[in-house]
Every structure is written in structure tokens, then in C-alpha cells.
Amino acid sequence: xxxxxxxxxxxxxxxxxxxxxxxxxxxxxxxxxxxxxxxxxxxxxxxxxxxxxxxxxxxxxxxxxxxxxxxxxxxxxxxxxxxxxxxxxxxxxxxxxxxxxxx
Length: 103
Prior knowledge:
By secondary structure, this protein is an alpha+beta fold. It is built from 2 helices and 5 strands. The protein has a 5-stranded antiparallel beta sheet with strand order 1-2-3-4-5, covered by helices on one side.
């Protein structure tokens, strides 16, 4: 008898987690963020968060994966969709997003 494993609806695999961590480090190196962090949503799914600020880090955007849509989604601090699609296309859109809000 095999075990049944229930994964969260927005499961992010190991390879994609490595890409997200690399992107977070890149974003910090460019001075566009001060911190990246893994969080969980209300269903136990992984959420990649990027913060900016100095004394008080402020959530700037988050990336999660919607398994039903089979797409990654980037959401800004106001809950608005920045982009959705493949991880690579979402990261490219987020890069442009940071260029626009860079201050």
C-alpha cells in the first residue's frame, strides 16, 4: 500500500525555490530590497516575499504558485497582480516592476 501525500495547492518545487532565492539575492544586491523571506499562506502553501526598508522592512511584493492555473503569481504590497505565468516570465515582470518603483 502506498502513502498518499497531500501537497499544498500552490506547491513550489525545490528547483523553483532555488530560482526565487537567487532572484531575491539579486534584488538585494541591486539595492531594490533589503530582505527576502519564505512565508506560508492560509492553506499552508509557500509564499516568497520581498521586503524593502531599513529600520522597518515593508512587504513590497510576494510570489506564490496557483496549482489550478499552473501559474506563478506576483502580487504587490496592495494585493494587485503584477504578473502571472511561468516563473521566468513572472521574474522578468517583477524586475521591470522594481525598475519602475525604484526610489
